[in-house]
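Lab meeting minutes (informal)
Scribe: AK
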Amino acid sequence: MAVYASAIYPVPNRFVNVGKEPAPGTVTAGTYTLPVTQFKPVDKYTYLEDAAWRNAMAELYNLVQGVRISDISIGGPLFADGIGYPLMSICGDYWQAVSGGVTGTTSSLSGSVSIGATTVVVASGTGISVGQLVSIGGTGTTAQEVRQVSAISAGLAPGTLTLNSALYQGHASGGTVIAYSSQAGITHNFALLNSGLGGGGSTASQPPTYTYEDFSGVPAASGARQYAYACYSEVTITGEAAGLVTWDGKITAIASVIAASTPTTSLTSVIPQPAWNSTVQLGGAGTNNSADWKLTLSRKLSPKFTNSGQQDPFAIARGAMGAALSFTFDPASDESEFLYYLANSQPTAQITATNGLPGTNLATLVIKAQVAAFDTGELDDSKDVFGFVETVKCVANTTNAGPSAGFSPISIALTNGVINY
């Protein structure tokens, strides 16, 4: 008698959500659907072999389950809103600005504000309305944060504003508060976190952690597995002129669990970016012959397994972060780019990629390396005309650093419609 499958699960129906955790390892429902073409999770269990002698010629007598961890490979086209989650996860430091903002009302803080505050008291709430964007902290500085007003107290002088999410920095009494009547986008800046909690973390000098939800339909009941305490050890962003700007990453997380309820999608309206619509500047001067560029952020990760009665790591520690760039200059019109390597002149490097859309639909990625040290360079004769293939190590410096100060090898800015990450 023939037997047929009772259920099948098509791959195109898959989706991956990401949610920010209030504390490391706290399984959190996703709030954004990452548009990816690759999500390859592997639950890794260490199995311990019992090969103790037993007056017999057998090799294995018991297989005991040891510690466990998950490794995930992820990637796809770059969307200039979704890439903020991997960048926050690997970098950790964060500040904001309003792009093309038109000031509606200016006020000031009536008292100091602590990290994690969800309300602020302003000298006057007159002219500020629910749904408006407000900027808190000095505009154009690393102290600036942007939030949306979700409620206003009855009293307006002073007035209490309830914000859409907690503030990541403390702010002194008298600090500037600006409510915008319109804006063209919000700029989100990421750099290496050196101290403090950065962009909503819960442990000093450690970026925030995330839960990834993988809906395939296969797991029982909810159809999804969740990977908590997710931390990136690598994020790469690539621009090959003939294709889309793409990204990929490597994640370490605790072993998966089946989601308690079926997740739902929260899809972006942003479109991916063609790489030809990106520009490369070296030493402040534009180059027109960059056939491809690549940014690699790499971070040391160390899962800490302890004798604490649990198979999962007690912590996933994030260590030092490095940044590197690579370029293919094709065709070579002269040796301008090659001389950066020979002379060790270490220019500034800036890569700007945009989706090219007008107004509030514009989404932009800007990569800035203040000290770009070209460490390899060679003449490339693999094509019809000569070019150069070169690599760069981004040297840590104070210019690229964020609110936590210290040093950072790079800073990255996204402009999009997201309020905050």
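Next up, CB showed the second protein from the same session:
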Amino acid sequence: MSNGDPLRVDFPSAGRDHGPRHPESGGDGQAGVKNQPAALEERYPPGPASGLGRVALWCYGLSALLAAILALSLTLAARAEALVYWVNYEDGTIGRANLDGTGVDQSFIAVAGFPGPYYGVALDDKHIFWDTGAGWIGRANLDGTGVDPSFIPTAAGASGAELALDDQHIYWSNGSFGWIGRARLNGTNVDQQLLAPQSSYVKGLVVDEGSIYWSDYQNLRIGSGSLSPISVNPLFIQPTPNSPEGLAVDEAHIYWSNGSADTIGRANRNGGGVDQAFIPTAYAYGVDVDDSHVFWANYDTNSIGRAKLNGSGADPAFIGGAGGPQGLAVDWALNPGAGLEIVKVKRNAVRGTAKLSVSVPGPGKLTLGGRGLRRVNKGANRKRVGLLARPKGGLKRKLATIGKAKANARVTFRPRLSEGSKTKTRKLRLKRN
């Protein structure tokens, strides 16, 4: 990850009438296109007596092409980094490092004259968010600039808020107030009482594909619910050994830190297969995952731990030198060699919809469209993303009338760390009982 927008490179061909554009080009820019080749022709005029003009032009085009390819490759290499971020509660800073443990910066964000980060931290494709511990959620750009320590207010007097994001909203736990709040990612439409999780102290929080999960610190359990419509199941996983803190999910599992029990727990996404001692560690707070590892913050040992997704290779001191780390979040890298794939389609005959499970090569934006289908835009913040295909207009009426209809779903992925896009299509056979 690096500062600024991705580099855009125009590749010139080796012909006489094409070259790099220049600011002095007038109107459509074509005057600038011919300036340098023309200068070369004056020095090496083409003709029967000499082929140096054409050779010079060909060499110029080739060198420009090679330089552009080199610049693009270096840009992609620099911007394909993936990072882990954590809150240094004792130091009042946000630290970060590469996912391989290198490039550690314990003071990546520090806000002078304002209370330091307290617990939660979360990422979208442009920003990092954190709980200040003083009734505010702060925000900054992913490169650490544009720091706003009072971006969104939390409930007055609330502290220890965990944060979670989907593609449109930010969510937070209002600590001992027992409510979960929500706002749009631009800071508007603040709702301090979106959901009552039936807990006197909500800590960890995660949102994924319309579902929400939270850790009930006081009652030693994990709750779950739906965001549309709002529903609550406070007994999703219980009991946990002690002090459940941070939460994370991937395609198959939910993970949580068992505080003073010194373990990371894991269960299947349906709440079954509970393993309360999946990974042994020191007192853990925040937890997050990428497509290959689990990361967690060890408060007592001032370190960031890491293990493989199957729990093996655990290293509680993977990154040292932190200052009482609590909240933790992982950003993941673009894999240029991976493709966009529609992995599976699951139909819902009751609602007449279909859920597409899409595998993406890195962070970015997904768009689902197609004739007769509602347009869906969703952030790709993990390797596998779910998109819901819903009929509209004539397709919806046909489905309601005869109980079946066909559609072509078109899924487009636009990566955050480079330019360009990839598109896949899939024929859908919708049914409705």
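CB comment: The CA atoms of residues 119 and 160 lie 5 Å apart.
No objections, moving on.
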